[in-house]
Amino acid sequence: MISAFCSRFHWTAVLLFTLAGLAVAPARELTAFELIPEANRYVGEHARDKVVRMYSEKSIGGLVPSVWQVVYYDSTATLKATRVKFGGGKMLEVKRPMNLLEPFTGPASPMDRDKLQIDSDKALRLAMDEPLLKHVTLKASALELKSTATDGLVWVVELWAAKAGHPDLNTSVGKVRISATSGKIIQRDLHIERVN
Question: φ, ψ for residue 4 (rounded to 5)?
Fold first, then answer.
């Protein structure tokens, strides 16, 4: 009788701790492509889905960025752009850049969403899997999705790694350019010597 009670108590405790863990587990960050339908809600109908660029700020406390900017082609704006900023999957601000000091590269053709096959999470994994990075401790990343004349739709992934002997400090170890249509590595510009 006592052992049956203890067994039931044990499983009840396990269940409660599991549920409590799920309740406080951090939510998964939205990928860049998952943010587009969210960002569409904050721009006019004439600009919806007309994304010309997406970029994140440098991630904090992990490798997955939580702050993203979605830039739309907007024919009614002065510089033909509207930018929607997200933090942790929530809209933070909507802005129409008024000068070239804003993080905007000028009017561009909207990206063909049907050609976009590689989302930000996969681009980050592909960059992190570079053999040259195997022996460094990666700490942060920043990603940018843009259209280029030479390579088409590309992800530019910048990575930061812990400094040798100073794990609380990190330094940029370079960038990896990845095709957003095929996942092929286009260019590696990595400098792991910077961790020393």
Answer: -65, -40
